[in-house]
TrEMBL record:
Lineage: Bacteria, Pseudomonadati, Pseudomonadota, Gammaproteobacteria, Pseudomonadales
GO CC terms of this entry: membrane
Pfam families (alphabetical): Band_7
Any single GO BP term: proteolysis
UniProt-annotated location(s): Membrane
Membrane-crossing segments per the record: 27-49
SMART domains: PHB
Region named Disordered: 313-351
This protein's encoding gene: hflK
Function: HflC and HflK could encode or regulate a protease.
This protein's name: Protein HflK
Keywords linked to the UniProt accession: Hydrolase, Membrane, Protease, Transmembrane, Transmembrane helix
Keyword Protease belongs to the record: yes
Length: 351
């Protein structure tokens, strides 16, 4: 077999003296082994990193360098390399029961999204950085949930809860120098334990009913209060207008009375008669029946002004309209006034 191999590799076949053949065959095998080892070493020493990867190279167990994308070479076995994808976003999910500030137990599921920010710290500072991330997440979540009431955890406080967990978790990772940056923390729908879920659902429905009733009451108050204020303002305006009207009428009557006093002092008899006639005209104009009494109480005359009576009936001529008056109504009125004047004169003559 050695001769056949030497023949294939161009070596000399064994002759009469077999010493030279044996030496040449051993040298050929050694060269082959050396070439295979060199090829295997070169294959393991040269490596290519894509755009998303980085590699940390250790030489004699000590940090040597961090290399980026492209064709790279290291020297095993004195060098060791650790290749990681530093741009890929990774996720870690957790769900567990937590104790809130008001001593209630809730189940809080969350997802932590993270990526490697410093490959050197990720490889060298912590033995298992992702396990450290899980432990830090448990600590941060328990601390934040333990400082929050159950209502906030179950309802509108989840966004604030996720933000506080992210900040605290990032502080823990920076303290450990894990080389991990947390990009997002998502707190999903937190809920009570299954054993008491129905009771918690009843409480949530009652709270929603309370909020709905409160909103309806506020809407009703927002509609009633402005209306009441408007009515109150209208009443105040009407009262102010009525007050001004009464005051103005009273002032006008006072001025009129003052002027009448001056005229009365000049001609008392004339003013007395004028006031009497004006008062009588005002009274008669507002009455639909007039009884004219004669001397001795006999032959009393009942005067019915038909034009005034028709004005007050539906469909009758309105006041101030151009409808013709009842014939003889004006003469009858003049006669009544003359009778009254004559009666006044006779009474004065007697006195």
């Amino acid at each position: 077999m050695q001769e056949s191999l030497n023949g294939m590799l161009g070596g000399k076949k064994r002759g009469g003296d077999g010493t030279g053949g044996k030496g040449g065959g051993g040298l050929g095998l050694f060269g082959i082994a050396l070439a295979v080892l060199a090829a295997f070493w070169l294959y393991s020493a040269v490596y290519v990193l894509d755009e998303q990867e980085q590699a940390v190279v250790l030489r004699f167990g000590k940090y040597h360098e961090t290399v980026g994308p492209g064709l790279n070479i290291h020297f095993p076995p004195i060098d060791r390399k650790f290749v990681e994808n530093v741009t890929r976003e990774r996720a870690y999910s957790k769900q567990g029961q937590m104790l809130t500030e008001d001593e209630n137990i809730v189940e809080v599921p969350l997802t932590v999204q993270y990526k490697i920010s410093n490959l050197k710290d990720f490889v060298l500072n912590v033995d298992q950085p992702e396990v450290s991330l899980q432990h830090a997440t448990d600590s941060a979540l328990r601390h934040v949930v333990g400082s929050t009431e159950m209502d906030q955890v179950l309802t509108e406080g989840r966004e604030l809860l996720a933000s506080e967990v992210r900040e605290r978790l990032q502080r823990f990772l920076d303290t450990y120098r894990t080389g991990i940056v947390v990009t997002q923390v998502n707190v999903q729908n937190a809920q009570a334990p299954r054993e008491v879920q129905e009771a918690f659902d009843d409480v949530i429905r009652a709270r929603e009913d309370e909020q709905r009733e409160r909103n309806q009451a506020e809407a009703y108050a927002n509609g009633v209060i402005p209306e009441a204020r408007g009515q109150a303002q209208r009443i105040l305006e009407d009262a102010n207008g009525y007050r001004e009207e009464v005051v103005a009428r009273a002032e006008g009557e006072a001025q009129r009375f003052g002027k009448l006093v001056v005229e009365y002092r000049k001609a008392p008899e004339v003013m007395r008669r004028r006031l009497y006639l004006e008062t009588l005209q005002e009274v008669l104009s507002n009455s639909s029946k007039v009884l004219v009494a004669t001397e001795g109480g006999q032959n009393n005359l009942l005067y019915l002004p038909l034009d005034k009576m028709l004005e007050g009936r539906p469909g009758g001529p309105a006041a101030g309209s151009s409808a013709p008056a009842v014939p003889g109504a004006a003469d009858m009125g003049s006669q009544i006034i003359n009778d009254l004047q004559q009666r006044d004169l006779r009474s004065r003559e007697r006195r």
